[in-house]
Amino acid sequence: MLKRPFIAVVVIFIAWSLLDFVIHGLLLQETYEATASLWRPMEEMNMTLMYIVTLAYTVCFVAIYDVFVSQKSVSTGIKYGALFGLAAGISMGFGSYTFMPIPWSLALSWFTGTLVESIVAGALAGAIIKQSDNRPL
User: Fold this and answer.
1) Per residue, what are the HEC states of 88-107?
2) Measured in whole angstroms, how far is the alpha carbon of residue 7 from the centre of its chain?
3) Are residues 129 and 66 in contact, defined by beta-carbon separation less than 8 angstroms?
């Protein structure tokens, strides 16, 4: 049944959008202003595409959990989110640092933000997509 995964996608998309606002819109605002030459001006940013990308990322996150994790629970979701967040955060933060002239503090913030967002999403996925004995694999 796709009801629980669909609900998980909606809830995690909203959570990630809110966390992105807090992390990038509030906490990192001064850092982005100090490195303004690296970014598009706000009026050139494609916010619609950003939300489409976030939605696609959310669908993939939930699908991997739903299809490949057999023991679904909050605890398992947190572990999944932490592992996913480590992989994505290393790429996002430190991978970007290798080829972009961003400050080390920004790379570390991107890594940490991605890790935190993924752990939160894993907990949400685990809570929403609960283990059921009669669910097909």
Assistant:
1) HHHHHHHHHHHHCCCCHHHH
2) 16
3) yes
Token pair of 16, please?
């990630």
pLDDT digits (tens, 9 = 90+) for 38-83: 999 989 999 999 999 999 999 999 999 999 999 999 999 999 999 9
Residue 137's pLDDT is what?
Answer: 42
Please give the pLDDT value at position 132: 61
Cα gap 52→77, rounded to integer Å = 24
Number of domains, the chain: 1
Buried b (16+ CB within 10 A) or exposed e, 94-114: eeebeeeebeeebbebbbebb
Residue 97: inside a domain, yes or no? Answer: yes
- Dihedral angle at the C-alpha atoms of 48, 52, 58, 62, nearest 10 degrees? 150
Residue 11 in domain? yes
Q: With respect to residue 137, please indicate whether it lies within any of the assigned structural domains.
A: no
In a domain, 112, yes or no: yes
Q: Are residues 72 and 126 in contact, defined by beta-carbon separation less than 8 angstroms?
A: yes
Show the domain range for 51. Answer: 3-37+46-128
- Phi first, then psi, for residue 104 (nearest 5°) are -55, -40
